[in-house]
Known about the structure:
The chain is an alpha/beta fold. It is built from 22 helices and 10 strands. The radius of gyration is 23 Å and the shape is globular.
Amino acid sequence: MTSGYSTFPAVVLACAVAASSPAAAQHAWLADWASQKQDALAAPAETNPFVDPTPLSFPKIELQRSSRWERALQDATIKAYERLIGENTSRSLLWTGVETANPLTRSEDYRWNALRDQDLFDASVRRAVTDELQTLGLTNVRLGLANHDIDLDHPESWAEHDALIGDFVGAGINVSLDMHHFGVEDRFRMIGPDGRTDPRASYYLHPEWPDYFARFAGAAFARYGGAIKAVTLVNEPETTIGFNSEMWHGGFPGWGSAEHDVIYVERAFQVAIGALKARIAIEAERRRRPQDVVFMHTEAVVTKPARVAFDRVVRFFPSDLILGHPWLMDADLDRFAAAAPSRLVAVARLKPETAHTPLDWLALHYVGAEEDPAAQSRARDRLVERLRDLRALHNDLRRAFGKTMTSETVFAADYYAHNEAAGAASGAWLSPEPQLYAAQVQSGERVGLYPLLMAYYDRYRLPMMIGETGTPYYSYGARWHQQMLLECAAAMEQGVPLLGYTLYPLLDTWGWEMGLSQPKAAALHNPSGVLDLDRKPRPFMEALIAALSTQTAAARTEETPDVQ
């Protein structure tokens, strides 16, 4: 146990603004805290640059009006979250998460295993970690599985994960379980006659991967569904799909390859099909054994202003497929299939890039990637087949269980400073240091969290949470998180239902600076954990706790040392 740290308060704070809906009422205390924080920052007083955020004024972003069906969907998800996690307290808002990534590297000679790297299969380590979580009052944790260590044909292979999840749940932790966090099992690496990996038939591109993943997710939910509170099917699908082109599982075909967009689309379909089949498997298990659960659809919220196609289509494409965006469900696929490929490509080229729909982008970058007319026809036909297959799975879920992929689903937005790597105005590299964030936003070089939350909410109309955020510049940890929470409150004030906020990661990790593309021996330590390598809270946590405890923050300011 760590002495000297107060817990996050579980009191309900009054809000100056009346709550008009369950969405608005969910975290009225956060609106109250943000209002008080803005007033305190505006008062002439000395600030602590390591703790205090910078007030920012964003242009007001108008949201589409929610339909009656969207409001009903949001309210049902919010009520499920309240039943499982709680409502209108900092304890029900705040999460942390255990890094669980386990991909093969670019060279395929090393597999990461974040759970093992953090010694979380050691019972004494787990006890120390859960003790600190309880002391801090952080009782909601995202946690995943090292899928490659589990063999569905050998029940004993679950033993380490049984103990891991059992100890967290037994310590009073609300667990959200990631079913897939970046790593594909070795069984899906296909070796060709030359003794080398056949990249077009391996990993996510292996035709049997979606069905295996669905079987895996169903088995995991059957095993842990009675204990966990939430499920993530596929962590950060856009990151998963994009990084496999360069960083993980052989890095095929490479980001600079002429084949990149075609392979990206093929992987996106495979991941989406796997996610849908996994949800169907979980719903079948829920029918057999009813279990209240919330689904967290996690995605890195990213912007690349210099790349119009990315910002307009690509960053949303995997989530569109998984969540069943209207363009997918309503597209006239018969008309698309009947059109000459050359016409599909020509029509898309005539449009400005800023007006492209996902189908325009697919016509250009999937069908149009081929030069031969016969090859273009085959590509068009395959694309239509994949779209129909995916649409059929969405319809199967609805018919069989009365659910969609947006039912009981929270969109968990993962945001770090490095999500915006290049300046929006200059294109120059943006430093991710927290003390520079506000000036970058004010100068127009950085978009910032608030506009990204608004953009992703407006597209998917789901209750939101922050699925991951943090900084390796830990001296500024309290400042970073307060800055992000102020922007969350601003989005909430504009009508975004916000349910959670995840300080990530819980424990220090390794290799983020090179995207886990090389072995750990070549990696740097990433000191961004809530707990350090000794599994003790970093000093910024005390400052953050004091700042969020609005009823006592003023009284405790003198007690909180500068975070240096």
